[in-house]
Amino acid sequence: MLKGIDPRMPADLLDTLMRMGHGDELAVVDCNFPAHSTASRTHSGRMIELPGFSAPQAIELVTALMPLDSFAPEGALWMEVDGQGPVPEAVHREAIAAIQADPSDSCDIGSIARSAFYQRAAQAYAVLRCTETRAFGCFILRKGVIL
């Protein structure tokens, strides 16, 4: 055990967050996303499992330690529902609330079409798969800096 770190934080996720640098992205994906095949194309090649976590819970766990990028146009992105455009579903609203709960993370949050999300996730540093069952419950988190 370590002081100040949520005991639910798996060692491989902590290691990944520590290895990421400013501007590196983490794809937080639901249980339907092709996480293994996408992770094989990421910078680290890592797919990290976070069983028992919804996407908003996973994001809350990550952002408790990792600042989001306030210098980029969006420090976080959520996957749009096909044909719906930037209209957030409940899973997106919950994740946005989790991000905005920390006043030190003042990044902009945007949306991205599903097909573009797949391409961007493959360019991420790593993929974090949670057990979110709600469709389109996928997110990109861009690492910021501590000022």
TrEMBL record:
Recorded GO MF terms: D-ribose pyranase activity; fucose binding; L-fucose mutarotase activity
Superkingdom field: Bacteria
Pfam family, one: RbsD_FucU
InterPro entries: RbsD-like_sf, RbsD/FucU_mutarotase, RbsD_FucU
Keyword Ribosomal protein: no
Catalytically driven reaction(s): alpha-L-fucose = beta-L-fucose; beta-D-ribopyranose = beta-D-ribofuranose
Protein name per its UniProtKB record: Ribose ABC transporter
